[in-house]
Write a structure and sequence with these properties.
Helices cover about 15% and strands about 55% of the residues. It is α+β, with helices and mostly antiparallel strands and about 230 residues long. Strand 4 and strand 5 (about 105-125) form a beta hairpin. The chain starts with a helix and ends with a strand.
Length: about 230
């Protein structure tokens, strides 16, 4: 009888141990998760694929682009004209997300870099009426056109913070990125025709004026789907 009781006791203990191990597996976090997110913000619209390397580190790769065009963004006094501002930015980026605090996966440090295939801003001015130059009335063709261009294409490092969970606990969530790219020093050009041809000599000053504009702020919402 005692032997039978001991056998039953050992069996119950073994079953309990197996159940405890199974529950531990169920409760432990799932590693190597994957997700895809659609992004929208100051660096444009795009998409990212995310892969979890460990409980604290995940990597993501993606692309984004900005198609921007504005007519008559900057009125020019004394000159009847139309102007157009365009910006074309597109990049491929590779980022790493690091969760520094255990149990606080809603806050992440994010670092990496992007290659900007395009990072151009253009401002064009076209006269629409006569321009009075002293006692002389110049036609739009005689006045000429003016174009200012800046190009930041190249590799740009990124540093920022991520908020909310990078991987959805169920199927979908929304998270946020705040940070900035540091763009290469811009290449510039100033091209004028007609009376405005003289502005072409101002390219050196224009490049100097634009040299400080190298930060591309990122405020981005991510609509994240678990794979």
């Amino acid at each position: 009888m005692k032997k039978t009781f001991l056998v039953l006791l050992c069996a119950v203990a073994a079953i309990s141990s197996v159940k405890a191990q199974d529950m531990s597996k169920l409760q432990s976090p799932v590693l190597h998760q994957e997700s895809f997110q659609v992004t929208a913000g100051t660096q444009g619209i795009g998409g990212e694929f995310i892969y979890e390397l460990s409980q604290k580190v995940a990597i993501r790769s993606g692309l984004s682009f900005i198609p921007l065009s504005m007519n008559n963004a900057f009125p020019i006094s004394g000159l009847n004209s139309d102007n157009k501002l365009t910006a074309n930015f597109s990049n491929i980026h590779f980022l790493a997300d690091f969760t520094p605090f255990k149990g606080a996966s809603f806050l992440r440090l994010v670092g990496g870099a992007a290659y900007f295939m395009q990072a151009k801003g253009d401002f064009a001015v076209q006269p629409t009426g006569n321009y009075n130059y002293g006692d002389i009335a110049l036609t739009p063709a005689e006045t000429g056109n003016l174009s200012l261009n800046a190009n930041w294409s190249g590799v740009a490092p990124y540093l920022g913070l991520g908020f909310a969970h990078l991987f959805p606990r169920h199927f979908f969530n929304v998270n946020l990125d705040l940070g900035s790219y540091y763009l290469p020093a811009p290449q510039t050009s100033v091209v004028g025709t007609g009376l405005l041809d003289g502005n072409s000599s101002q390219n050196a000053q224009f490049r100097k004026n634009m040299s400080g504009y190298r930060f591309l702020p990122v405020a981005q919402l991510n609509f994240n789907f678990k794979l």
